[in-house]
Design a protein that fits this description.
With about 110 residues, this protein is mainly α. It contains three helices and no strands. The relative contact order is 0.12. This is Oleosin protein.
């Protein structure tokens, strides 16, 4: 009984940690995307008006590209954590999903 309780508590802690990690990564993704778009809307007209030199424009484009790349990376990381959670704790899980229900149901007929 105590081992089963410890197993459940451990899985709940794992799930809570995965939710926190996935949520944090998705929040970083959204924050990075929004800040990149704001930087793009502010910096582009300023560069066009005040910069006759092409180098600052290239730097701006590189920073914007880097922002979108980092935003996409955080999004992929968050989605990967959420998929991992679904795979381990969702319908595909052997301990919590359909497999465990069918196994328990089949075990009732073995007696």
């Amino acid at each position: 009984m105590a081992e089963n309780y410890q197993k459940v508590v451990r899985q709940v802690v794992k799930a809570a940690t995965a939710v926190a990690t996935g949520g944090s990564a998705l929040m970083l993704c959204a924050l990075t995307l929004v800040s990149t778009v704001i930087f793009l809307t502010v910096a582009t007209p300023l560069m066009v008006i005040f910069s006759p030199v092409l180098i600052p424009a290239v730097i701006t484009v590189c920073l914007i590209f880097t922002g979108f790349l980092v935003s996409g990376g955080f999004g992929v990381a968050g989605a990967s954590v959420l998929y991992w959670m679904y795979r381990n704790y969702g319908l595909l899980s052997r301990e919590w999903g359909l497999f465990s229900l069918s196994t328990r149901w089949a075990a009732t007929f073995e007696d």
